[in-house]
Design a protein that fits this description.
Blueprint (H helix, E strand, L loop, with lengths): L3 E6 L2 E7 L7 E7 L8 E6 L19 E8 L5 E8 L2 E11 L5 E8 L5 E2 L9 E6 L11 E10 L26
Antiparallel strand pairs: 1-4, 2-3, 3-11, 4-10, 5-8, 5-11, 6-7, 6-10, 7-9
């Protein structure tokens, strides 16, 4: 019932496809095409017209500052940047970066906007749009022709200056979303 949408820019090309490891699951495939700008990315949007951001703002608080995305990349060590911004005012933004640690497998990357790489998290602002950037480095190392898969964009909370998730206790089921496994 959701009209999932995305807007590519700077030379990215994305589409919703079958998961490379589970054909019963759908995910986003993004190619940073040959010759793409180093700042090429993909914005999540509900396709209109007009194109609109999330129905509700990201619920950042002083103690809840993290988002996660499951990423499948061809190599480890690839910098991935997530930008949260205000759809009505692009000057209101905050960016966080994570790095892939596995190759050719799913990896859950955590983006902590409480310790941003650019901009600053101002809790009085509305953040209702996100964009994802792969291999977000200066032009000399930007790459091109690389394919990435991503799924499960989630607000995780935790991080920042306050307490995060609870620690594990027995029994360990890996099903409790309040536990930091």
């Amino acid at each position: 019932t959701v009209n999932y949408g995305f807007i590519d820019f700077g030379g990215n090309s994305s589409d919703i496809v079958a998961d490379p490891t589970d054909p019963t699951n759908f995910c986003m495939e993004t190619e940073k095409t040959p010759g793409a700008n180093w700042w090429s990315g993909t914005t999540l949007a509900v396709l209109g017209p007009p194109d609109v951001p999330f129905a509700n703002p990201i619920p950042f608080t002083a103690t809840d500052t993290r988002m996660s995305i499951r990423v499948w990349a061809h190599a480890s060590g690839i910098p991935v940047m997530l930008k949260a911004e205000n759809n009505a005012d692009g000057a209101i933004f905050v960016e966080a970066q994570a790095t892939t640690v596995v190759a050719n497998a799913w990896d859950t990357l955590i983006f902590d906007f409480g310790t941003p790489t650019n901009g600053s998290l101002n809790l009085s602002n509305v953040y209702d749009k996100v964009s994802l950037f792969y291999n977000f480095v200066d032009p000399a190392g930007a790459g091109g022709g690389e394919v990435f898969y991503w799924d499960d964009v989630e607000f995780r909370g935790g991080g920042g200056s306050g307490p995060g998730l609870s620690q594990m206790e027995l029994p360990v089921t890996f099903d409790d979303p309040t536990v930091d496994y």
